[in-house]
Structures are given as structure tokens and as C-alpha cells.
Amino acid sequence: MTLEEKDLNYIWHPCSQMKDYEELPPIIVKKGQGIYLYDKNGKEYIDIVSSWWCNLLGHCNPTINKAIKEQLDCLEHVIFANFSHEPAIQLCEQLSENVPKGLTKFNFSDNGSSAIECSLKMAFQYQYQVGKREKKRFMCLTEGYHGETIGALSVGAMDLYAKLYQPMLMDTIQIEAPDCYRCPYGKTRECCDTECFRKAEKAFEQYAQECCAIIVEPLLQGSAGMRIYPAMYLKKLRKLCDEYDVLLIVDEIATGFGRTGKMFACDHAEITPDIMCVSKGLTGGYLPMAITITTEEIYRAFYADYKEGKAFMHSHTYSGNPLGCRAGLAVQKILREENIIEKANQRAVYLTKRLKEALLEYPYVGEIRHIGLIHAIELVKDKKTKEGFDSEERVGYQIYKEALKNGLLLRPLGNVLYFNPPLIIEEEQIEEAIKRCVTSIHGYMDGR
Ligand SMILES: *Cc1c(COP(=O)(O)O)cnc(C)c1O
């Protein structure tokens, strides 16, 4: 049996129709270096999606590798209830300097979805313990994505992931999300006055008194196709939450650690959420770790004599894993000492310019939108009407297959192709990635 055959003999891959693998077998990756992956035959792929958005500073980054190796010979893991260790303490100390002002307490878990579950329970229990027991429901945005466990799916709104499971999910209030490419108010990004925020105001008027929190992906609805919305929306939402006593949970899992050009997407709007979830880039994409970060005020509502029963009885076995914390510390050090975000912002300007030169005039490119180094290319059947391709044709997926042949890992979101590269990508590498991307688009579109 080949390795690929053995793989398919045993493994049920994530988010995959396994039958597709008959035609496109799994790629056995042997090595990673910087933005590159190498398969077992030595073929090179540019990892332009940062291996599901988590690889922040390149594969096999020497500083992170070294930190983990050192930690490995010291302590691999320890129970985190009543026990602690320096890497966790130092990581929180570091992060507290970078997170939005007012966020001071760090609750560890081991993946993004778990951090979301933690935030929902925390918000619910907070309201309960401050005596607002009628506040039981959650608000969220349409097209939102917060992970795939049951609570996270409930506050998500993408049919692709959630529809089938509806009978298992919480009944949430969905607010129509901003849609800047197909703005229902006929505005463009340049002349927008966040008219769509009226939908949020209406929902708050009607439902806020029964809601403990609203959860949003700040500025970037990633899984929905890298939909980017204005900072003003988030700023207004912060105010609205304060007026109605609804907690603001911000899911920075995809946007955190420089992805949007600032340390956190919240920083664009200069707001502090009540609860913030981070994961993906936290360990540079090395180890599964997540943190739900909150304010002194929320923390205080759980702080009491044991017999009052106010403790937050929430735990994950691998909470605060030392290897993850050491990786996280190395990431913070690199971000700080090597001015990574500033440099990435310069490269982002270059990427925008070159990508637009290469593709904006192409008849099937509806929009090229971007924030930080994240750049999305929305493919449409008709540029004028913005009508999309039939999902059955799987245009994005066909181009993805083409791109693999050309040495580019361009896994799409429906018919949206995107770049979300490690922040360390260089200009020549951007050039090469664009070249491979354009070749792949032509490779499929011109022959269909
Ligand atoms: C990836 C992601 C999650 C879920 O994280 P997992 O580690 O995959 O469970 C949640 N929210 C956002 C915005 C994400 O991008």
C-alpha cells in the first residue's frame, strides 16, 4: 500500500467529503520551512493560507523551535488547577501589555471552539451572578463563524456548518451582518455611513433585555469569505452594548496577532470588548492553545467564598499547556523584537498593488478586498450584477486543484480565493505566489 492508500484506510480528514480524495489523494507533507511546505517527493508548495490561518511566523521558525525544545526537557504538562508554571505566567504578563486596555484575566483552553464555549458560559454566568437572570440568550451576526462545537455552532450562522444540526442548537438572535461588496443600501466602502447598523439597533431594542451577550468576529468575517466591514460598525456596537447592558464578546481567533495590520482587530476601532477569544496565531500555529480573556469586573462576579457556588466550573485537560505557552512566549518576543507587524504592513501595500495589477481587470474577479496581509479575491459569473457562480460547479475548488499542481496551497472559501500568508512573507515570495495564483485561475477558467 502507498502512504496515501494507508492514510485513506485509516483517516477521516476534517471538513472533507472523503470521496473527493479518490480524485485528489491527501498530500503527504514531509517538511516545512518558512512559507513553504515540501511533500514526500520534494515538491514545494507556498502555504499562502498559513495552514488554516494559524501559522503566523513561518514553518519551523528557529526561535519557536528552540523555545519548545528547551521546555520539552523541563516540563511537558502539569495539571493547571492549583498548579502553575512560569511559561503561563510570563505569557499572560506579555499579552496583558498588548491586549486592549482593561482586559486583565486569562482563562486557558486548547482550541478556538473551546475558547468560544468558555466565553459563552462566562457571559451567561456573569449575568446570572449579578442578578440579571432574564438575560439568557445570545445575539450574533449572520454569516458569522465561531467554530464547530455545539455552542460555537449555535452562535455561528453559516448554513454549510450549522444547518443540519439546527435541532441540537441554542435559539439565538441573528442580526444581518454588514455586506460591503453587495451593500443593500447601495453604498461603497468609500462613502459608507454604516447604514446597516440600524439592523443591530432594532435587534437590541427588541431583544437586548433577554440577552446576556453578543458575539462577533471583529472587522473580518473569515469563514464567510473574508468579508471585511468597517471599524465604525464595531465602535457603534461597543456603545450599543453599554447602553443595553449586553456583553460584547469578540472572537479574535482568526484576526489576532497582526493579521489585520494591528495587534488585534479591535485596535482599529479602539475598543475593549468584555470578553476576547484568541487562538490560531497564539502559538505561531505550533500547538493547540486558546485563551478567553476578560475584565476585572467580570472576574469579580465569580470571586466569592466557596460555599456561595459562584466559581467558574469550566476546565480542559490541557489548559495552560507549558509547551504551548513557551511557543506563545517566543511568538510574542519575535513580534516585538523584529517589528513583524510593521514590516507586514509594508508588504501588504505591495501585495495589494501587485494583486490588483494582476487580477482586477479579469472578467470573473468581482472584488479584491483586503485588511492587513489578508487579501480575498471574490470570483463572480458577472462583474456588473455581482452574480456568483453556481456552488455546484465548485469553481474555487477547481482552481484550488489547479493551484496544487502549480505549487500553491490556495484552499478557497466557496468561490472566494484568498491569501492569508505567514506575516514574514517577502516581496519576491509574494510575486511568485501571485504568479502561481494567476496561472491557476487561467488554468481552470479559460478551459471551462
Ligand atoms: C478557526 C476559528 C474558530 C475555531 O477555532 P478551532 O481551533 O478550529 O476550534 C473560531 N472562530 C474563528 C473566527 C475562527 O477563525
Explain how this protein is built.
The protein has 448 residues and is of the alpha/beta class. The protein is 36% helix and 15% strand. It is built from 15 helices and 15 strands. The strands form 4 sheets. Strands 4-12-11-10-7-5-6 form a 7-stranded mixed sheet, with helices on both faces. The chain has a 3-stranded antiparallel sheet with strand order 1-2-3, with no helix packed on it. A 3-stranded antiparallel sheet has the order 13-14-15. A hairpin with a 2-residue loop joins strand 1 and strand 2 (36-39). Helix 3 runs antiparallel to helix 12 (322-337) and helix 8 runs parallel beside helix 9. It is globular and about 70 Å long. Bound molecules: pyridoxal-5'-phosphate.
Structural key phrases:
single chain; 448 residues; alpha/beta; 7-stranded mixed β-sheet; 3-stranded antiparallel β-sheet; 15 helices; 15 strands; 15% strand; binds pyridoxal-5'-phosphate
Strand content: 15-25%
Q: How far do the termini sit from each other?
A: 35 Å
Oligomer: single chain
E-strand count: 15
What ligands are attached or bound here? pyridoxal-5'-phosphate
Radius of gyration: 22 Å
Q: Sheet bearing the most strands, described?
A: 7 strands, mixed
> Residue ranges: pLDDT <50 for 5 or more in a row?
none
Biggest β-sheet: strands ordered side by side in the sheet: 4-12-11-10-7-5-6
Category from helices, strands and their pairing = alpha/beta
Shape: globular
Number of helices: 15
What is the average of the pLDDT values? 97
